[in-house]
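dumping this here before i forget
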Amino acid sequence: MKKLKFPSAQTILLIIAGLVALLTFFVPAGKYDTLAYDSGSNAFIRTSEENTEALPATQATLESLNIIIPLEKFTNGDIYKAINIPHTYKKLDAQPQGLVAFLKSPIKGIIDAADIIFLVLIIGGLIGIMNHTGAFDAGIAWLAKTLHGHEYILIVLVTTLVAAGGTTFGFAEETIAFFPILIPVFLAAKYDALVAIACIFLGSSIGTMCSTINPFSTIIASDAAGINWTTGWQGRVFMLGMTLLITIIFIMRYANRVKKDPSKSIIYNQKAQIEALFHQGDVKVSSFNWRLRIALFVFTACFIVMIIGVSRLDWWFLEMTTTFLVGAIVIGIITKIKEGVFIEVFVKGAGDLLGVALIIGIARGVTVIMSDGLISDTMLYYASDVTSGMNKGLFASVMTLTYSGLSFFIPSSSGMAVLTMPIMAPLADTVGVGRELVVNAYQYGMGLLYLISPTGLILPSLAIAKVGYDKWLKFIMPLFIILVIFTLIVMTTSAYLM
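structure:
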């Protein structure tokens, strides 16, 4: 009897979408009233199922709605999304998402995620151009020779740098660009593709989980909780340092086993396939001529420009995608690729990442079903009810686990912050702890589930190297359990120290 094969990433997401669609038949539909600031009229817009009304943009208005947030957080643009108004949850007529809605969800998701999908496709084209020039092969051969005997530096350096991006400006979706580039480097260092995926994905995940000055999580969540974002920063820095250390040690232990004995690799049966996918072969360092060096410089500069743009110039997917498109064209000119060949290679490179782009779209479709089924706010309402009135230590742990569960239904960090903080943050007052505890629970809870959540970025990341989700679970589970236990201990202890 043949061994059953684990489903592909696309199939897993479609199964999840089907299950979520079924939930809309059983979970009551409901919604909170929302409040948004309209800069044009300098007024608050309160929206409910019955009507929409304009309210004066004053601190008194916020206080009358039990929203303990300074007015300037809205007027200066810190809180730019509509927030839920506490104590306004209402049950609504059920909006079950049947077969037709389920079938439409992947298409809606692809349309909704068009910005990141185009970024992935353009990056695929750029990678195709770089592979065609031979710059990657020559550069990797040079790097492998330079790091010979000190390959572990790659693990520490990549994981730490990506984590730094995550903790400062939410470096997450942008990491998709790094997998096709760094996986060949790790393969050349005699590690497997899982080591490269772990360094990039876990580095980003740990960084965003323990965000320190990340405007898309720490700052916006603190603002929505009515506290200064610097409150509790010491605890987040401690968590960042400890979880990053635990993660690097975990990756290095696995990497060393693989380096000493390749058969110890969880994906050993895919070794030849993955090496062929990333063009691993014998390339002489002498072929690394000045044109290829300039091409690699331009390629690297694209990422530097992207990072500066996102962190300093408010860039988002349009500007990032344009940067990589321009980079591909410049590299084509430098390496004298003919126009017809350039188009053919670029399109083929984009096609190589089409499967990854579709995974991103299907995952977004799951969120569409939950939104159309009106069950996200219901989950929030019952979650806030569960945690009310607990003792400090239990409150901290349950709040962390609650946010883990909610993150499946509300995967956006900024969306989670503005929707839940006005509801959850006041619960800290009832048990005698600081509201920063709720902000930390939100970050850590979302971050923990993100490590294994199939609706996050892990499936697209794995798809780039053709690695199955089951292999990732086998790799990550020991670390996941360690991080969950460590986080709950830290949260419980910090509650009693307040």
